[in-house]
Design brief:
single chain; 391 residues; alpha+beta; conserved putative lor/sdh protein from methanococcus maripaludis s2 fold; Elongation Factor Tu (Ef-tu), domain 3; OB fold (Dihydrolipoamide Acetyltransferase, E2P); six-stranded mixed β-sheet; six-stranded antiparallel β-sheet; elongated
């Protein structure tokens, strides 16, 4: 029994020693373990993104409005035969310029000249009959006054005189018509312009039912017509209204399909008094010089209504302009180098710039390069870019 008690005591002492060892090891790791591994250093802040900016500036700008237009000749005439006959001569070259009064076609004259000669002869006979009737009437009237002729004879001679007078008038009218028909055998240009292709050549029978022989289209000056919405027309009128109550003069320019601006300005001369109810537009028209024959009837162009005098307006590069569902906006960099979003209203384009009518002030720095890398509220490093030169 003494041995058994001694063994149990030895096991208890060994267990207690093991517990003390474990606690000592844990305390050593708690106090010395973290000190052996220093805490990680704080992460470095990324640099602010770099952007390129341009300063919103005032420029002299002529306010303009652009519309799709069509060139139209001021005069266009279809040449037709007015009498029937065989074409004897065609006296022009297709595509040449002609003057009013130039002889273009000639129809055989023989039958028309004969009709004139016959009509003249009829007039001579009628004049002779009128002379005889007048003499007989005067004689009967004189005899009646002396009671040598009854009144019935005077009345009869008066009726014969009136009939001869009417007959002469009829034949003179026939002579006039015959002379006109003879004149119609010479078909002349009624206007200045350029003549197109001929539909009939020498030897063909032509008459009023034949149709168009050729078309003459005037060349200089020429019209440009373009549809303008009622809303745009109100904007144009507002733009022309001066502070003093007057109306600013405008130029109407034309841009060719190649993109080149036509060198001669036009003069507005008509605004259609009726609005098309289907399109809510009306037609405006301007007269434009065409000395080089650059513009052609029926050609599509861009019509530009532009103020003659420039006015200072705020402009920014078109590259700065962004758009979303709410409309146009730009990103600017403020004095604290933070990005701000500004909603803007735009005016016409000016080369690579665009006019800003509201939303910005002169001197604001708008972002034109690196827009996709930044967002409102972000701090950036801006670089002012030089103003681009050239158109």
């Amino acid at each position: 029994m003494a041995i058994s008690g001694s063994v149990s005591k030895s096991r208890w002492i060994a267990g207690a020693a093991l517990v003390v060892l474990v606690l000592a090891a844990g305390a050593g790791w708690l106090f010395f373990g973290p000190a052996a591994k220093p805490p990680p250093a704080a992460a470095a802040q990324p640099p602010a993104p770099a952007v390129g900016v341009r300063v919103a500036t005032m420029k002299g700008v002529s306010q303009s409005f652009e519309f799709v237009g069509r060139i139209k000749a001021t005069d266009k005439v279809e040449i037709r035969a007015r009498v029937e006959g065989f074409l004897q001569k065609v006296l022009f070259k297709e595509g040449q310029d002609v003057k009013a009064g130039d002889l273009l076609y000639q129809i055989e004259k023989v039958q028309f000249q004969a009709a004139v000669d016959q009509a003249k002869a009829n007039v001579v006979v009628a004049e002779a009959e009128l002379t005889r009737a007048k003499l007989e009437y005067d004689r009967a009237l004189d005899l009646s006054k002396r009671q040598f002729s009854p009144q019935s004879q005077v009345d009869q001679n008066k009726a014969a005189l009136d009939t001869a007078t009417g007959r002469l008038m009829q034949l003179k009218a026939a002579l006039t018509q015959a002379e006109v028909n003879l004149d119609y055998t010479d078909i002349r240009a009624p206007i200045d312009g350029r003549i197109g292709r001929t539909s009939h050549t020498v030897g063909n029978l032509v008459n009023p039912a034949t149709g168009v022989l050729a078309t003459i289209v005037s060349q200089d000056p020429i019209y440009v017509l373009f549809p303008v919405s009622v809303r745009d027309l109100d904007a144009i009128r507002e733009a022309r209204r001066k502070d003093g109550g007057g109306i600013a003069k405008i130029d109407i320019r034309v841009r060719l399909p190649s993109g080149q601006e036509y060198p001669h300005p036009g003069v507005w001369n008509l605004t259609d008094p009726q609005v098309d109810p289907q399109t809510d537009t009306l037609i405006m028209r301007a007269t434009i010089p065409n000395p080089e024959r650059t513009l052609t009837d029926g050609q599509f162009v861009t019509a530009i209504i532009r103020e003659r005098q420039e006015a200072p307006r705020l402009v920014v590069p078109q590259a700065a302009l962004q758009v979303d569902q709410s409309g146009y906006y730009v990103l600017i960099v403020n004095d604290q180098h933070k990005v701000e979003l500004r909603r803007v209203q735009t005016g016409p384009n000016l080369d690579t710039d665009v006019v800003i009518t509201s939303g910005l002030r002169e001197g604001d720095k708008v972002i034109v390069d690196g827009i996709q890398k930044v967002r409102p509220g972000q701090i950036v490093q801006e670089t002012v870019l030089p103003v681009a030169t050239g158109g």
